[in-house]
Amino acid sequence: MTAAAASVRGRAWVGDAPLFAPVDLVLHPGGWTCLLGPSGVGKSTILRLIAGMETGARFEGEVTRNRPVALMAQDSGLIPWLDVTGNVTLGARLRGTLRASASSQHADGQPGQEADPTARAVALIEAVGLTDRAHHLPANLSGGQRQRVALARTLFEDRPLVLLDEPFSALDARTRAQMQDLAARLLDTRTVLLVTHDPAEAARLGDRILLLRETGLTDWPIASPRPKAAARPYDAPEVLSLQADLMRGMMA
Amino acid sequence: MRTVAALIVTVLLLWQGIIWLAGMPPFLLPSPLRVLDALWLNRAEIARHAGFTLTEVVLGFALGSALGAALAVAMGFSQKLTGVLRPILTFSQTIPVFALAPILTLWLGFGMAPKIAMTVLIVFFPVASAFLDGLMRTPQAALDLAQVMGASRIRIMRHLRIPAALPSLATGLRLAAVYAPIGAVIGEWVGGARGLGALMIHANGRMKTDLVFAALLVLSVMTVIFARAVAIALHRLLRRYGV
């Protein structure tokens, strides 16, 4: 077995109240790991620990990560004054690697260490199906379109490890299913940690499903492998039965 | 606009009515017509003084805003600096600017400098305060992303925090534009012979109350126009920036 892509070992408190019992989460390289659980058990805290962000909780233990990450969350975090292209290339702008030739008006003019960011952005915007909206501002996009932009921005970062913090939970059921398909296709070659409270989402996307409850972390058995670069069909009997299983596990 | 015009006419009529009924002597309360008369007779002198005041206001506003904005950005960078500066700034605002005017005149002379300094003192606080407030309220989702993307603090400030705080800065600037003339006029009251403030003090000393009112009227109109111009400029700027 190869080295872990990331790991979290330890426990956390919010104030004096324990947030989660001791967990030992090891994220293996490749594929989708779904961290499933109800709200308030510390799923997002684990993700934020891996990302190296502020958590607001007190954590005692050890976090490791051996590769750079990209982040996508429920709040798309789109910058309202940048158009779709500007938002997709935000990382380059913030690192000062966006070239002066880029369409943006506040480009920095440092020659890129990243190969032509604008061309990559154009390709990614096409991949998420927003080519005709490349110059729209976020205010003129629907919730689903915003998450498409966020997905393109995440892909633009081109990081081997991608952290998804309930990215589709604010979307309607149909848009959510479409986004799951799109994400499964576009993030195929990467190691993905998906934090979700939706058993149906975990059942569709997880190569491995970790159920986080107040009592601790459970590695949930999965019968059928996920098809390559795709989500499992939302209506397949084995997916529905896995979903029911997970729901029972969450209720237990 | 119609309501405003009606209100002004009503106030003018009341004013004139009080003078007729109470038989006020003009050196106590001149009639509106007398004020207009004084305005017309002294138009050249008033315009010259208004020019000085406007120059002080514009320069003081620009300097004070720049200082306030720079201070806000510096404080936005460092919690420590904010912790030290915030109480000092609040304390500085408890000192009445009226009390500072004579000292500034003593230090900076009778020219424009102390008036501009007074305006700066009045302007910088609302600007710094509103801008800092905006800088501290950047959406957390964007800051999280920036951190994971490996952005430096300077770039986060420049590309996220400052643009996101521009509406707050605009609020501070609009407020400061209304207050700026007060600083200039207080400065003029205390020392020097130029500007609408100085004109008012001298006219008051000679019982030329109608001239005081005329100067006051010009000052008010000037302030309204200046504040409006600043507001329009900010509105255009913000729209172009898209925030």
Automatic annotation (TrEMBL), chain A:
GO terms for molecular function: ATP binding; ATP hydrolysis activity. It comes from the Bacteria. Residues 3-239 form the ABC transporter domain. InterPro entries: AAA+_ATPase, ABC_transporter-like_ATP-bd, ABC_transporter-like_CS, ABC_transporter_ATP-bind, P-loop_NTPase. Keywords: ATP-binding, Nucleotide-binding, Transport. It holds the Pfam family ABC_tran. Belongs to the ABC transporter superfamily. This is ABC transporter related protein. It comes from Paracoccus denitrificans (strain Pd 1222).
TrEMBL record, chain B:
GO terms for cellular component: plasma membrane. GO terms for biological process: transmembrane transport. Pfam families: BPD_transp_1. The keyword Signal does not apply. The chain crosses the membrane at residues 54-77, 89-110, 116-135, 164-191, 211-234. Residues 50-230 form the ABC transmembrane type-1 domain. Keywords: Cell membrane, Membrane, Transmembrane, Transmembrane helix, Transport. It is found in: Cell membrane. It is a multi-pass membrane protein. The keyword Transmembrane applies. Belongs to the binding-protein-dependent transport system permease family. This is Binding-protein-dependent transport systems inner membrane component. It comes from Paracoccus denitrificans (strain Pd 1222).
